[in-house]
Amino acid sequence: MMCLKHGHRSQARVLVADGDRNQALSLASIMHRAGFNTAIAFNGKEAVDKAKTFRPDLLVTEAYLGRLSGIHAARCITARLPNCKVLFLSSEASGGDIARGAPDGLIYSYTPKPIHPLNLLNAIAYLLSAEWSTVDSPTNHLNPKPGAAETAGATVRTAEAARKQVADAMPCGNSRVAVSISVGEMSPLRMLAST
Question: Is residue 6 within 8 Å of 131, Cβ to Cβ?
């Protein structure tokens, strides 16, 4: 299974940045199992450096990463890659802390840690408008052949099929996955407008 950027033929790329190695590896593992192409950084400087070559569609980062915080790393990455979305996960910083530290114009979303793996995948799917596909190669998924819906290579087109594929990818096997995010589960995207 692979997670594709909506309307594209390429696998969605997620850069995970967290100073806690176990957290970073766990988050990346969850995303990789769900079909995302992932890269890992253990501090803000490493995240900025990896983003230059990895070119993520989404940065999932802890707000506080040491010398170069996740907030500042996000600013540097989105300055180079304006289409890169940002999801802050933090057990230390609140939404208000991030809002005070984020530069004007940075578009991001925030959710506190710990986060259930299914809620994490929901948030990422929402931010990227992602589609899941069982195709080994992302070629020709936008124009499937007649009858392709019955084959293993069919791109997921319905919420029910997406729920099942995400649930099947998760070790907990929970088949009750919401593809969209309710406001109660995660704060909406925010844009801090310049004043």
Answer: yes
